[in-house]
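Now for one record.
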Amino acid sequence: MLSKEDIITLDKTHVKSAGEVLGRSLQDDPVSIHDIPDKIKRHAVMKHVFQMTCCLGVKYGETHATSLDLEGIAVWLPYISKEFKMIINLGCMLKSKMYKLGREAQKRIMPIEKYSTKVHREFVSGDHWYLQSLGVEPVHQGKGYGRLLMEYMLEKIDNSNPLPVFLETSTEINVKFYKRFGFEVVKEGVIPETDVEQWYLLRSAK
């Protein structure tokens, strides 16, 4: 059984493989299904979305894996301004080949990104951490790897520079999971222009 001592911080050499793990773990998430309804295409290209987020995490935040075998991945980003996000997203989008999603998928993503950004700013505007992605390889789910990654980073935040943490999820069972770590739902509902139900959660600084 893995422990927090096995957790590693990823670098740019891990971005491709870590994105593939997240792609497989989240390829049938409600947001992923909305973005790319076609299952075959979604399973083929979803890795590019998460290679972009891993790129951001490695360059500007913290990206962890449960071990060198990458059973589970967590991407954490510090709060940054809109202008900075646009600049760094461009570089990571190109490196991760986001163009392979196609124009239709990118159009379908926009309402979710726009609304989620609005809610994010509404409930936390100062310095904070944002849990961008958390996923466990399907064959390893249910083994406590997600809990391990959460405990590791939250302890680090609490013991160094205590700050709030914000996240969103489109799966109700995940709400119960995050509440175990002190998160509270600040807003929930169906995102306008979509059929995706989303929960937004905030953990106060400890």
Remarks:
- The chain has one domain: 4-113+124-164.
- The two ends are 29 Å apart (CA to CA).
- The chain has seven helices and seven strands.
- The chain has a mean pLDDT of 94.
